TrEMBL record, chain A:
Name used for this protein in its record: TIGR01210 family radical SAM protein
Example of a GO biological process term: tRNA wobble base 5-methoxycarbonylmethyl-2-thiouridinylation
Cofactor(s) this protein requires: [4Fe-4S] cluster
Gene Ontology cellular-component terms listed: cytoplasm
Elp3/MiaA/NifB-like radical SAM core domain residues: 55-286
Molecular function terms, GO-annotated: 4 iron, 4 sulfur cluster binding; catalytic activity; metal ion binding
Keyword S-adenosyl-L-methionine attached: yes
The UniProt record lists the keyword Cell inner membrane: no
Automatic annotation (TrEMBL), chain B:
Name the UniProt record assigns to this protein: tRNA-ribosyltransferase
A GO MF term: transferase activity
SUPFAM superfamilies (alphabetical): Pre-PUA domain, PUA domain-like, tRNA-guanine transglycosylase, Uracil-DNA glycosylase-like
Lineage of source species: Archaea, Methanobacteriati, Methanobacteriota, Stenosarchaea group, Halobacteria
Pathway(s) the chain acts in: tRNA modification; archaeosine-tRNA biosynthesis
Species of provenance: Haloferax marisrubri
Length: 360, 585
């Protein structure tokens, strides 16, 4: 596949450096978690190829991401939310699922239940070191009466056999893959994710073979990229993902500054600013023609540590994004404007990686 | 090799330079219009650009922003190729190295601008790692308020990006601060962008104004650098932002960085108007040399005198009166803040006749302790048969009493009320009754030796001139030094109060025990000047303005250094030494 070259050598060095730094940063966090409680659970609505569904989102507390233990992604602080000491036993994981079902029953109207179940682990649900085959099967059984499932995984762990647990039970099943960017160079050097776009394409094929689909998760503005570079990379990534067969949804996630990450170190020292909400809006508007659902959930939107504009218009732009998520209509962005658009445009023309962030 | 940047003038770490593009740019300057960014290697692989003489090309870079961990900086640093067009390389202070580029951009300035200590540490480290004759650039940080300090620290190139961005955000920048646009009921500027009523003034106008204000401030700074008076300016300008005041104080704490760069002579005024004036290199260096290099050669009593506003002191009305009273029967030494003590032989020597301070008669405790410390060191090194203090009662006498107590010295005080009253002058005159006069010859010889001590090192005056029978011609302060064979050795230069040597004097210096400052050159005969590429080696302790011996296989010469020792060695462009006399070998 790859032949030895200075570029590869250099990339290896860079990965070693990123991993060492991320291990050091993560080791500062002391907090541990109860293996019988999920990390988070909430009810929302989501746009799918079959229309908008009520959704139950579960962040399952597993042993944590295998890659994150090696160091892992420069923006990801979720590993710190996993349990101490590695794996979580089947019984404990099922306890977590029960807590989530209780939450759903409490939050939703009587007799209603979410048609869409989304399970994230801050790692790979399909990695059997995180979620044993027995547990995966039991979870699939638990939700067999729903319409759709989404499970998070790195592409390596996506096989038709594992997905069959869900698809054979009649669930429309999508794998959520944190591709982050379609550009291998950016994914490797800025995000510190080890796989290639080709691996993502392979995972899409595997999912298709089991009758499932793929939802690509992209990262808007990884560290080390300036605003214009990040925006260009996002637009081309959305187009490349949408062009892959069986990748029917793209979720664009603006980087939010999480504690105990390299991004946090850069942010704290004045070397990083999360993307502008105008960039989020621009990426959605400019790729509205692609043959995929494109959505974005700006976590921490409007705050210093999340995607933000000047402070005056953040809420309106955030609303427009949420509206776009459900209707996929780019004209929602014509309804919002602000003086700070001129600043944002200036940043696109003038910010470089050696003067960023030009505006806080 | 630096082919497209040349330093023409220096004022401490600040320089006037020339970015030698097809239309050359005088620096420090904004370079937005002549900067071409070949792009980031983080985002994509890139071909090396073809470059052009019209622009400064930023080579493809992988910038490490503020907060990047050491391991990441090391692993991802780019090894830049040496290009034959005007180029800039993006580095951080600790990964900076000589890549053959003409300019270097620090990628993490956003992290240290605004933090005095971090700024100082980064800029000093970068300057130490980069060749002295390359330009230093900071992008996205310059404002009309901070740019004079950026230049003071040694930054050559900046851009308008932050000033314009602030305008678009609704901020109106001035050299003293920034205002919300909405708060301005009139525009405090007359630039082109501001020629409209405040009510019609837009954010786009503010961006234009901010850029204009930045360029105007840079023009002012360039003028100051050319005049050798940037420090005087920043001592005032820095007050408009606390971190800027902290910044030049931080640099004052790094004495060797500034000392290496501050010229030993200037013919411009030095304004000592702030409490930090005491800490500047010129003041500290003078005090240091007076108390470590200079030695009193008179056998007469010491008379301590107050300074005068007029310089040199001997031309002031008060000192004329003192001189008439003393009548060459005592060695006259003036006490002054912030210089310390000035022996009469050094009254012309920079900055003794060049400084001007604020006179209220009230001395701060810092001033008193500084002058007391200099006086104490001076009196430890120099013995006098008697010490007479002809000083106004108050701070002056308090200092002298403090030092006399410390050193257990007897001091005679001769002033009642004021030094120039008839009674005081009479006291001074009578106190010296019976003391022998020194001759004009003794006085002139001692001046020349004192200058040699001050310029070259302890005891240099004796090392150079004890074996020769000195003949003085011309009148003080334009003394000429001749040996007994009728060959001129040196001339005293009145506007700086230093010696300049002839070829014969240079040989005497070279052959003496006094430390010689030598610039070694290639096999050519320099006429007018030695250019930097011709320099083979140079003593590291050479400072701009120093008298230097120039030696090479084909020539022996004497001249004045235009740059410091390290710059002489490292530079590939620019005038290194102005030659005064040369002979072929």
């Amino acid at each position: 596949m790859s032949k030895p070259s200075p570029e590869v050598y250099e990339r290896g060095r860079g990965m070693d450096a990123h991993n060492k730094v991320m291990r050091d940063i993560r080791s500062r966090k002391q907090k541990t978690y109860d293996p019988h409680e999920p990390t988070r659970v909430w009810i929302d609505e989501d746009n799918t190829p079959d229309g908008v569904y009520d959704s139950l989102t579960i962040i399952l507390n597993t042993g944590g991401c295998r890659w994150a233990r090696a160091g892992g992604c420069t923006m990801c602080g979720y590993v710190a939310e996993s349990v101490e000491g590695g794996t979580v036993a089947h019984e404990a994981l099922m306890d977590q699922i029960r807590v989530c079902l209780d939450h759903e029953a409490e939050e939703m109207d009587d007799g209603e239940q979410a048609g869409l179940i989304k399970i994230y682990t801050s790692g790979s649900f399909l990695d059997e070191r995180e979620v044993p085959a027995e547990t995966r099967d039991a979870i699939a059984e638990t939700f067999a009466d729903r319409d759709r499932m989404v499970v998070e995984s790195l592409p390596d762990f996506v096989t038709r056999e594992k997905l069959a647990d869900f698809t054979d039970r009649g669930l429309e099943t999508d794998v959520a893959i944190g591709l982050e960017t379609a550009t291998d160079r950016v994914r490797h050097d800025c995000v510190n994710k080890y796989f290639d776009f080709a691996d993502f394409e392979d995972a899409c094929e595997e999912a298709a073979a089991a009758g499932g689909g793929v939802k690509a998760y992209l990262l808007m503005k990884p560290p080390f990229l300036s605003e214009p570079e990040a925006l260009d990379d996002m637009k081309s990534s959305i187009r490349r993902c949408a062009a892959v067969d069986n990748c029917h949804t793209v979720s664009m996630n603006p980087t939010n500054v999480q504690r105990y990450t390299m991004v946090d170190e850069l942010f704290f020292n004045g070397g990083y600013r999360p993307p502008w909400l105008w960039s989020v809006a621009d990426a959605l508007r400019e790729t509205a023609d692609v043959d995929a659902i494109v959505v974005s959930d700006p976590v921490g939107g409007g705050q210093e540590r999340g995607a933000h504009n000047c402070g005056d218009c953040d809420e309106l732009v955030f609303k427009a994004v949420k509206d776009f998520n459900l209707r996929q209509d780019p004209s929602v962005f014509d309804q919002v404007s602000c003086d700070c658009e001129a600043t944002w445009e200036f940043v696109l023309d003038n910010e470089t990686s050696y003067n960023m962030p030009l505006v806080k | 090799m630096t082919d497209y940047f040349e330093v023409h003038a220096r004022d401490g770490a600040a320089r006037i330079g020339e970015l030698r593009l097809s239309d050359s740019v005088t620096t420090p300057a904004v370079v937005d219009d002549v900067l071409a960014d070949a792009g980031s290697l983080w985002a994509t692989e890139r071909e090396l650009p073809d470059g052009s003489d019209d622009v400064l090309t930023v080579l493809p870079h992988r910038s490490l922003p503020a907060g990047s961990a050491d391991e990441v900086r090391e692993s991802f640093a780019v090894d830049y190729p040496d290009m034959d067009f005007p180029s800039a390389a993006v580095v951080t202070a600790d990964t900076a190295d000589d890549y053959g580029a003409d300019a270097y951009v620090l990628s993490d300035a956003q992290g240290f601008v605004g933090h005095a200590r971090a700024f100082r540490d980064n800029v000093i480290e970068a300057k130490e790692n980069l060749p002295a004759d390359t330009a230093l650039m900071l992008s996205g940080v310059a404002t009309p308020r901070n740019v004079s300090l950026l230049v003071y620290a040694g930054v050559d190139l900046v851009d308008e990006t932050l000033a314009r961005a602030r305008g678009l955000e609704g901020f109106y920048l001035t050299s003293d601060g920034e205002y919300f646009l909405e708060d301005l009921d009139e525009l405090p500027c007359a630039c082109e962008a501001c020629r409209k009523p405040a009510s019609e003034f837009t954010r786009a106008d503010a961006a234009d104004h901010n850029a204009n204000a930045l360029r105007a401030e840079l023009a002012r700074v360039r003028r100051r650098v050319r005049d050798g008076r940037l420090r005087d300016y920043v001592e005032g300008q820095a007050r408009h932002d606390q971190w800027l005041t902290a910044l030049f104080r931080r640099f004052d704490q790094q004495y060797s960085f500034m000392e290496e760069r501050v010229p030993v002579i200037r013919d411009s005024e030095l304004t000592a108007a702030s409490e930090e004036s005491i800490d500047r290199v010129e003041i500290q260096r003078f005090a240091d040399r007076v108390t470590k290099r200079y030695r009193n050669r008179f056998d007469n009593p010491l008379v301590l005198l107050p300074c005068s506003a007029k310089k040199p002191y001997s031309e002031s009305q008060s000192h004329r009166q003192f001189q008439e009273a003393v009548q060459y029967r005592a060695h006259m030494v003036s006490m002054t803040s912030p210089i310390g003590v000035v022996p009469q032989e050094l009254e012309l020597t920079y900055p003794a006749q060049h400084y001007d301070s604020v006179v209220t008669g009230d001395w701060s405790e810092d001033e008193k302790s500084f002058v007391a410390e200099v006086l104490r060191r001076y009196l430890e090194r120099n013995d006098y048969p008697r010490i007479i203090a002809h000083l106004p009662p108050g701070a002056y006498t308090e200092i002298v009493e403090r030092v006399a107590d410390d050193l257990d010295l007897d001091v005679e005080f001769t002033v009642s009320e004021h030094p120039t009253t008839t009674e005081s002058i009479g006291n001074l005159m009578r106190t010296l009754d019976g003391e022998p006069k020194f001759t004009r010859e003794e006085r002139e010889h001692n001046v020349v030796k004192a200058l040699a001590d001050y310029q070259l090192g302890p005891d240099a005056g004796d090392a150079l001139f004890s074996d020769v029978e000195l003949e003085m011609t011309s009148r003080y302060p334009k003394l000429q030094v001749w040996n007994d064979a009728g060959v001129q050795l040196a001339t005293m230069v009145p506007q700086y109060g230093v010696l300049s040597f002839t070829l014969e004097g240079a040989k005497v210096w070279r052959d003496s025990d006094a430390p010689t400052k030598t610039v070694e050159i290639d096999g050519f005969v320099p006429h007018g000047s030695v250019l930097a590429p011709g320099v083979v080696d140079a003593d590291a302790d050479i400072r701009p303005g120093d008298e230097v011996v120039v030696e090479g296989p084909k020539a022996f010469a004497i001249g004045r250094a235009e740059m410091g020792g390290r710059e002489l060695i490292e530079s590939t462009r620019g005038i290194g030494v102005e030659i005064r006399h040369v002979e072929e070998r």
